[in-house]
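User: I'm preparing a small set of examples for a lab meeting where we compare how different chains pack in three dimensions. I only have the primary sequence for this one, and I'd like the structure in token form so I can line it up with the others. Please keep the answer compact; I'll paste it straight into my notes.
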Amino acid sequence: MKLDAISHRDRNTKIVATLGPSSSDPAMIRKLFDAGVDVFRLNFSHGSHADHKERFEAIRQIEADVGRPVGILMDLQGPKLRLGRLVGGRQMLEIGQKFRLDLNPAPGENGRVPLLHPEIFAAIQAGDELLIDDGKVRLRVLESSPAHAVVQALNAGMISDRKGVNVPGAILPMSALTEKDREDLAFGLSIGIDWIALSFVQRPEDIIELKSLVGNRAWVMAKLEKPSAIESLEAIVASADGVMVARGDLGVELPPEDVPVLQKRIVRACREAGKPVIVATQMLESMIASPVPTRAEVSDVATAVYDGVDAVMLSAESASGMYPVEAVTMMDRILISTERDPLQRVTMDAVHFRRHSDARDAISAAIRTVAETLPVAATVAYTSSGATTLRVAHERPRAPILSMTPVPATARRLSLVWGVHSIQAPDVRNTEELVMHSTEAARKNSFGMPGQALLIIAGTPFGVSGSTNLLRVAWIGDEPDVV
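Assistant: Understood. Below is the structure token output for the 483-residue chain.
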């Protein structure tokens, strides 16, 4: 689906695609965009700063070529908890086998395994479980101290050097930002990243710490991948600018049958709070090696669309798979097909944006009423900070959303949001200029024909963040009436 400056996607749900070895060439990145990608993810768990800068510049060139903003999300690696080294590199554990974990860096042998993370020993207690290598080996803590723990294997399995460790039952006394993350963050902000995804979120303070470093230079997304984060779900959603449901890690630290329930709960919390939400991980996993997905994967993607998520994400499918373009194309087809089902609107509308008693939410509430009374070609949201567009989008209006902003960074960030076609627009000084630019932009971007109605939302005085207080109906090519 090729795009240029006067066209837009034929769907509301957005596609986030991860770039990697299979998609680092500028020509391939352009193919992915043409196939349907709205936001590109740069995974800082892999690749050098030079690699990411090349991909960043390729995306910005696409943006210049097509004449519309393209969002870029950087995903910070976060802390990686790992076993130390073992004599011989590996050890087979038998079910019920007991051994010691400690802070001694010497290679493990004779019933001892190094675990060089004092924060783990500070948090665990008898009865807790540790998961090794994405849960392939489960250990129960029998006794612990600040420097060691005695554990018992709950299943037979192989452990080896540097395998990952998960601690699902405890909040670890550590920052979600490592020294590497801080260096990556400084680099990402220096080149102009739009969104920053924070891994290893355990509490709202993790988001607050990152936002204190970022300021207004980017929007911050909380990756929910730990059970402790779910215990503070509402506070984390309130603190973040957006949320990613990181189902892979959730599925390691929680029983698999709990993940769909938590996905629904997280999505609902974000929808009610008016925060963008992405569902991620293994959505079309089989397309890493196959040109077609499984029927279960198609159903999984469709379920997220029925719930009204803002975006769905491809990880290895587009980063390292054999069929990156085919994966994006398939994702695009699933989204379009699902959104055409009348039941999708009914299901999505079961969750409503939580409103407050103020002028901005009164305007948002009026959007549906006006649109149902007077068919409109599009809802135009004029915004500086993005707040007006977010309020419109999370009402999930039937008419397409044309977001206009004089701030390039805002336009790029909003490319992630449900139903939003985001463009950069001139500054306006009065409502006459607002109507003129809105009707012209709607016509140029194929959102309506002369004589069709537009619903225009903005805030006055113009340029003041959070001042949404204007609702106006205008006709493309005609003088507007005032509501």
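A couple of notes for your slides: The longest strand covers residues 137-144. The two ends are 37 Å apart (CA to CA).

User: Perfect, thanks.
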